[in-house]
Amino acid sequence: MKKLSVLYLLFVLQITGCKTDREDFQTLEDRFIVASNLNDEYIITINEAQPRLANVTAILHPNGDIIQMNEFNEHGLENGWATFVENVQVNDKQGRSLKVKAKENSQWKLQGYKEGKINLSYSVRLGHDLLVPAIRGGDNGAAYRNEDGVMWAGRALFIGGKSSTNIHIKFNIPENWNVTTQWRKLKGEEKTFEVDKTKDLFYSAFFAGTHKHTELTTGNVSLRIAMSGKFTDEMSQKIKEQVAKYFEYYGNQYKSPLNAQMVLIMGDRNYSGGEVMGKAISISLSPETKKEMAINNGMTNRISRLIAHELFHSFAFDQLEVDDSDDSAPLYEWFNEGFGAEYGAFTALVRTGVLTEAEFLDEIIYRMKEYQNEVNGKITLVNAGNDKFKYSTTVYWGGLMAAISLDFLIRDETNGKKNLDDLWVYLLKTYPKNGEALTLNKIYDAALKLYGKKIADALRVYSNSPDEIPFFENAKLMGLNYENGKMTLAKKATERQKKQWFGFLNK
Ligand SMILES: [Zn+2]
Q1: Cα 312 to averaged position of ligand 1 atoms, centre (Å)
Q2: Distance of CA 11 from the midpoint of ligand 1 (Å)
């Protein structure tokens, strides 16, 4: 690190000390040769007149003769993330220009490449938010522009080579712009960052512009928050308060091993949604949300749930080692989205007092009804993940119903001694990142170990049978009564039932 700063200083001194163009050129060339022995680096240039154009130059080592983007989750783009990339140019270390041939899956082959680092330059034109129909999964997982600046996902912007370490990213942006990202700020530099590995670029995001920036730290987790757009900005204080609340709740409830610098990017968009990209969370607020906020003069349940949902991914599922190769990833959609994140979010909301008990039950009933409409005797939670977008109701609300129904059953069976959150604590401890991989069978085995055969069998049936999940039936175990479209704690509920239900609410 120290060595690097000294060299940078030397460059600056040399460049400022230059007298002629020729010297200037030599200095730049020297700089490249010296830099070849140093870390990979990227310089991202965005100017105010054309904020949708990002010009990138990089010094890196190709992977064999290939350079590539992170094609994972390409959001249905026909040519993957490369769709918006233009003018890829490469010089080798002798300064020779190499022919670059675009290949499938956002890869480029460097013809005649022999060895050493290359000097790469390219542009990416931000059009991810202008597509009709809209980009699959939402532009908050790709890139967008709004009144305050631009949001970029790392996968939409970076072309990388061989996996590298301690990579520098420098921003060349308007004077009054700032950058909010999870990357480490280089000491003394406002707009230069460092990441440990290439992967940290590929699974990242940033907002650059005149947005509002705030930060918070809880335990081992630090979060930088970017808020852009008028409505998001108006809610900034409330967003921060709620995020802090969920951080504390999730940390305690799941004993999450999460230890990270994260970023949360929130902005006004024309739809509601969110996505997690490694340690970056991106959330959009829709016009409906904005209308509701104008009336409620603050946060809405919709946005609270969205934040809690995305944070759950970071605290729980994303901390697990899961066999999520292309073939098996769909099998876990219900477990991650509905059973995990929706259940985690709704329970966090009611247990931290963001939702009242009555509001919570109304929200659950509304979703149970939607889920019931999609039950057709064929789709199961597990196979719905093969078409997550078509069967999103089953993946999200079906998974949620499975979790709540199972939790009620566990509380009843164990007389309130155990609950569903114990499963997450156990899984996070037993299957942490880079350890043994979790499979569906191991989830059922964990349920067997923690709660016994009846519960493990119930979980198997809820997730693998196309029959409706018995939410209404299991709710009766908690003394909950469903009548005229409303669910309430029955007047006739027994003391035992009340105890279980208040246990669920953490009262
Ligand atoms: Zn999710």
Answers
A1: 8
A2: 46
